[in-house]
Amino acid sequence: MAEPILKVEDLSVDYEVGAGTFHALQDVSFEMKPGRVAGIVGETGCGKSTLAHAIPRLLPEPPARIRRGKIWFRGIDLLALPKWKLPLVRGTAVSMIFQEPINSLNPAYRVYDQLVEAVRIRKMRETGRSPVLFTETKPHDYSQTPSPKASEVLRRPLAPTLPLGRMRRLVGFSRETFRSDVLEYLRLVRINDPETILNLYPHELSGGMRQRIMIAMALSEKPSLLIADEPTSALDITIQAQVLTLMKELMEEVRTSILFISHDLGVIAEMADDVGVMYAGHLVEFGPVDEVYSSPRHPYTKALLRSVPKQYKDDGPLPSLPGSVPNLSALPAGCTFHPRCPLAQPVCTREPGPPLERAKVAQSPEHKAACYFSEEVESLT
Amino acid sequence: MTDAIVEVRDAYKHFPVTQSFFNAVKRISKEVIHAVDGVSIDIREKETLGLIGESGSGKTTLGWLVARLHNLTRGTIRLDGKDITTLEGSGLRAIRRKVQVVFQDPVGSLDPRLRVWQIVGEPARAQGPVSRAELRSRVAELLPTVGLPGGSLDQYPHEFSGGGRQRLSLARALIVHPKLIVLDEPTSALDVAVQAQILNRLVTLQREMGLSYLMITHNVAAVRYVADRVAVMYLGKFAEVGNVRDVLEHPVHPYTKALLAALPNASSTPPWSGRAPRCVPPGRGNR
Amino acid sequence: MGRNPSDLVVFVGKRLLQLVAVLFGVVTITFFFTHIAIPNPCNVWSGPRATEATIQLCIHNNDLDKPPLTQYFSYLSKLVTGDWGTSPLGVPVLPTILTRFPQTLELVFTALLFMILLGIPLGVVAANNSGRWQDHIVRTFYLSGWATPTYLGGVILSIAIGPALGLPRTGAFSSFPTFPEPFHMSVLDALVNLNFSAAVDAVLHLILPASALAFINLGIATRMTRTSMLEVLPMDYVKTAKIKGLSDFLVLYKHALRNSLISTTTILGITAGGLLSTTVVIEEIFVWPGIGAYAYDAITKYNFNGTIGVVIFFAIGVVVANLVADVLYGLLDPRVEWR
Q: Deepest in the core among A17, A207, A214, B101, taking most CB within 10 A?
């Protein structure tokens, strides 16, 4: 099995605000295999967005504070990097798409100017004009792509060395050099009329279009890991379907590893290979998506899956999880889920919840759950 | 039809297109948005009518028309057989007792400076003078029916979670014992686990109190559980109206089919692409 | 879709029409205020030892025996034809103002330059380090400028700090060579005449009064930039800029500042208009030969024509500064439509 591209170990993040300390993430550990899509699902405030922002170190510090943990990305601990080296990780190594397409593009610049920045950064790093942290482009693999022709672009001669070579080296490339690259990436995200789109401002585009441009921008840097933080939650249902379809197709073509954050169980089922379920800052279950969905090994996962309404009114009441999510600044002692858990035993109140470990009676070794009684989850109705 | 409490006949609602500069100089052009474009529908007693569609389809406008939060451009609305299309003043206040609205945003629709008993009791006060003690005891009785502790009378809305606030809105609507509650995206700001609790509560209340609901939502799963009949709206018109099982399991209109296919979980990709056009008459292009 | 350049022309045209209305109002108000406040300035104009006959002659010569409305209309009609009257000593008003106004503009522009080059980066630094020591220092700095009365700041600079740095204390160029003055702006004129030593001298003379003027208003630019940066920094597009791998400098100054400048520009436009009136005090302290000093002189000497003339130029300055700010606002924010 290939080396994991991302390995998060015991990541704990607090938010220190006036009202107290909120434990947004508690000892979260998981691994991502290259070329796979890992979904993270959970309710509002479970810490999934904090996790997404912690990996490329985008959390605002303060109020956020990374208390403990390591984020191993291709052999480097991102949490140990000095602040000035962070831009070198972002873009070409880790990129991200945000939830609100209305806010994620800069309203003051044309689409072209925003896209060309991304392409330029990649080219500067690829040609050694600006420093890099990761030299080889593995495990990112564009060679299998028939339609985007990204590899072809790379074989094209670079900007010729002029007498002012030293100057050009400092200045980089001219603005128009990358026009064809930018157009190519717009076509990659199925924008039919890229020439026109280039000269528009973000406010002149629809939400779905903006999200496509965000995807193009992220992919144009060829990141080895793409984090998608609720990329379709703000879109209408048919537009969401279009964007999801596009992302699925791109996953075939581009084969980048994706960490896909969503609150929507259906979206995760469509997109992800593996899924992690989060509850109150803890990762309570992680495993291949089919297995987790068909035979969950944590009572919260089971309850969450059953809450999705699938029946009509005359079929009887919806199975629902009683109680509500605990306050992150005053988590219950023991396993955080025990006050709502039908399987709770005295040990669950006494001892802190078990670490995420291989679930008992699970089919595959990758299926992990953080529950003392994971083998009994199946019997829950 | 005799058992219809609301009859909407040939309703139109047009909004002028306004453009603003610094929000100061407003200019009204002759262009209009056809938000609701000639629809007719009945809402029957003890029935839930689900209204589904995408943003800009006019579903919220239609709901607001029924609650008379907007005035109709053309057409009529009858409540309990009485024409309420042009009611003003005290007549309008009287229908507020029969029709209540629960809004989408549980944060923005509750005044943060008021206490629970004031918020929930507000519609009752608007109907006539009530003593403070009477109102408090009435609210205290009502809170458990929406699943809130009766002792939370003096709390403020920010002390509640999103689901708790939506229960408060529901209690506020119930206090005048309305016949119809317009539910405007009641669960779209909530997570699935909380949504299931609220949906169950809605169904229980309907059985106990004989309520009718007009449920406006883009959430097909929620509509499936709550509604008896479903109307699918597209560009201000109904694409399809019918029994919930018929519409969701055997859609006839191509738009309904596409909408259902677009739901995540469905294995196939949507049969068409392109963005829903805005309801502006042709001639003004938009991307 | 998008904006039409011709919309901008229409927009500017409309605003200039408004300027005419503003000027009319300003002239009317100033005229009646001065004439009601001092109904008979001839007592002063004719000097302490004037005879009754001289005063009567003065009254007659200046039409002061006619009804105020008649005086007003005859003044207006002369104003439109370009005859702005003379001072009590017979010096024509318009030519004086035309040679003095550019000097004030030079002072104001230099002060604005200081405010932009210093005030805006300070605001960025403060916002980016919000709550930390850099923020506290910047806030103390601009609040002290704000709290200092205009004259006090000027006096401190001119008496204490200026000499300590070896800068000339006043704008009166004693050592100034004579050469043709096409612009009536000392630095520009010296440069045009290729007289570089004079240009350096003029710049040195500018530094103190311009910094006095800028120091007082620096807080506005800094505070506005800081506030709007604090609004912009948590926006998703700043995160987008970071995740692209841009350096912190580009994220701050290319992506975040560009959007927060939108509100700073509006404030700077309003401030620039206000700076003009502050020059009355500053020019007096630093003996700067602009219209601020002239305004002071005109008011104290009951020079009505001069006062109204200065007020007209101040009004034009304020309106044009706001117009420029609005145009810049639209250029910075592509979502604004010219209407």
A: A214
Residue at B271 is within a domain: no
Determine, yes or no, domain membership for B287. no
Considering the domain boundaries, does residue A138 fall inside one? Answer: yes
Q: Strand order of the sheet with strand A20-32?
A: A20-32, A6-17, A64-73, A76-77
The predicted-structure confidence for B84-100, as pLDDT tens digits, reads as follows: 887 777 778 888 888 88
Q: What is the reported pLDDT for A171?
A: 53
In a domain, A229, yes or no: no
Taking an 8 Å cut-off on Cβ atoms, the answer to whether C339 and B19 are in contact is yes
Q: Answer whether C239 sits within 8 Å of A118, measured CB to CB.
A: no
Q: Is a pLDDT exceeding 60 seen at residue A10?
A: yes
State whether C244 and A118 contact (CB < 8 Å): yes
Distance from CA of A10 to the nearest CA of B (A): 27
Number of residues that make up chain C: 339
Nearest to A241 by CA among B278, B268, B256: B268
Number of domains in chain A: 1
Question: What CATH number corresponds to the domain at position B57?
Answer: 3.40.50.300
Give dist(CA A311, CA B225) in Å, integer: 6
Structure tokens at C323: 């117009």
Q: Is C82 left (phi over 0), alpha (psi -120 to 50) or beta?
A: left
Angle between helices C291-300 and C93-114 (to 10 degrees): 130
Identify whether the C-beta of residue C170 lies closer than 8 Å to the C-beta of residue C158: yes
Tell me what the mean pLDDT of segment A238-257 comes to: 81
Q: Which residue has the higher pLDDT, A89 or A173?
A: A89
Alpha-carbon distance of C186 to C206, in angstroms, equals 9
Is B194 an 8 Å CB contact of chain A? yes
| Residue B165, pLDDT score | 85
Under a CB-based contact definition with an 8 Å cutoff, are residues C34 and C307 in contact? yes
Looking at residue A236, the DSSP 8-state letter turns out to be: -
A212 in any annotated domain: yes
Return d(Cα A49, Cα C12) in angstroms, integer: 47
B268 lies in a domain?
Answer: no
- Judged against a pLDDT cut of 50, whether residue A218 lies above it is answered with yes
Can you say whether residue A75 is alpha, beta or left, with left for phi > 0 and alpha for psi between -120 and 50 degrees? left
Residue A126 lies in a domain: yes
Total number of domains constituting chain B: 1
Phi-psi region of B60 (alpha: psi -120 to 50; beta: other; left: phi over 0): alpha
- The pLDDT confidence band at residue A345, using thresholds 50, 70 and 90, is confident
In whole angstroms, give the CA distance from residue B209 to residue B200. 14
In whole angstroms, what is the distance from residue C323 CA to residue C338 CA?
12
Question: Residue B283: inside a domain, yes or no?
Answer: no
CB burial readout B108-138, b (16+ within 10 A) else e? ebbeeeebbbbbbbebbeeeeeeeeeebbee
Range of the domain at A164: 111-218
Task: Give the residue from chain B lying closest to A237, CA to CA.
Answer: B262
Say whether residue C1 is in contact with chain B using an 8 A CB cutoff: yes
As a whole-number percent, the residues of chain A with pLDDT over 70 amount to 87
- Tell me which chain B residues have a C-beta less than 8 angstroms from the C-beta of A320: 193, 196-197, 200
What is the average pLDDT score of chain C?
80
pLDDT digits (tens, 9 = 90+) for B1-56: 457 888 888 888 888 765 544 333 444 445 677 888 888 888 888 889 999 888 87
CA quadruple B85, B87, B88, B91: dihedral, nearest 10: -140
* Residues paired with residue A261 on neighbouring β-strands, in sequence order: A40, A229
At B171-207, the pLDDT tens digits run 888 888 888 889 888 887 788 888 888 888 888 888 8
Give me the residue spans of the domains in chain C. Answer: 5-80, 94-332
The two structure tokens encoding residue A349: 């109140």
Reported ipTM: the value is 0.79
DSSP C87: -
